[in-house]
Write a structure and sequence with these properties.
mainly alpha, HD domain-containing protein (chains A, B), hydrolase (chains A, B), homodimer, metal-binding (chains A, B), metal ion binding (chains A, B), 203 residues, 5'-deoxynucleotidase activity (chains A, B)
Chain lengths: 203, 203
């Protein structure tokens, strides 16, 4: 292969195969095994296509899909950090920054910078597109937990108010989907998949 | 949930989770297990982003990514058919047609028709975008087989001329990547990953 640029691009493509081995806390909807971050990213991109009509104005679908496809590749080095894991989230940003430095640098310089900027945009939720992408990234595990009778919530003792807090990203980035989220949470509480924290007495 | 349209879209999103359990013949590049069709589709969409500069004129990147993300969802019902399996390929089209009828019909009518048309465009390789998408769908398993020392080829006794024949889709849909494909095939033959068929005597 004479084309040095193409060689680097192919090496990047081979490298990211490793995302298929990064396991998340969620199970597949049939409960058979943990989901990995590559198939999760595929699912999010499909959601961006199917739910496009609910996106707020100024959302750029191609940009969103690119963000969703690449938003987790830093996990190849940094691993998946469970969203309710307080300790793991303390050094998540640092671990992911180091990962981004290594992984995007596999690409030709200009292209690596372009894809890294997309990842940074997603992480900062600095645009309507990034906020919409983030909302889908929250909605998918919610659907997944509903389908698996609250598997991840029960495993980690996650409560309704924690889920509601986390799902505020949907309210911000995908307001048209917020009633759906509220309904799913109430259905999950009613079904016993998600527990409500005991009320704290104000006395 | 009051919105009947959204209910159908969410049901479709939940249904396609099953693609994560459809196994392909190829292994992950680390050889640890078979690849599934959802993560394969993610990988192809990433390739469409990274290799965009090599796409022929008239290729629409968003259209290509959509095709690649959904091209395998018929396998939820029809299963993955190994490309060198002659018997399996005899009724592949019929099985996939039935699958398309069921799966795309889960969506609201207009949207189901739109996504199905994209799948049909991919299957017919009737446009520059579909030909490019098809080329990427051939290139990815080639890279994969190279990384796994020809695992799938050795398992099924696939030869150099069979691979070359199959890779003609790259020559047609992605001529700028054809020299890369020829080089990989020769490297795989030299490394002993891919066998050359014995020459047939013309006597």
């Amino acid at each position: 292969m004479q084309n040095h640029k193409l060689t680097r691009q192919i090496q990047f493509i081979i490298e990211i195969d490793k995302l298929k081995s990064i396991l998340r806390q969620t199970l597949l909807t049939d409960g058979s095994r943990q989901e990995n971050s590559a198939e999760h990213s595929w699912h999010l991109a499909m959601m961006a296509i199917v739910l496009a009509e609910y996106a707020p104005p100024n959302v750029d679908m191609l940009r969103v899909i690119k963000m969703l496809l690449l938003h987790d590749i830093v996990e190849i080095d940094a691993g998946d950090t469970f969203c309710y894991d307080i300790t793991g989230n303390q050094d998540k940003a640092e671990r992911e920054l180091l990962a981004a430095q290594r992984i995007f640098a596999l690409l030709p310089v200009e292209q690596g910078a372009e894809l890294r900027a997309l990842w940074e945009e997603f992480e900062a939720h600095s645009t309507a597109s990034a906020k919409w992408a983030r909302a889908l990234d929250c909605l998918q595990p919610l659907l997944n937990n509903q389908q698996t009778q609250g598997h991840t919530w029960r495993l980690h003792g996650v409560t309704r108010s924690q889920v509601l807090h986390r799902m505020r990203a949907v309210e911000k980035g995908a307001p048209a989907l917020w009633p759906l989220v509220e309904q799913i949470i109430e259905d999950c509480v009613a079904a016993g998949y998600l527990k409500v924290e005991p009320e704290i007495s104000s006395a």
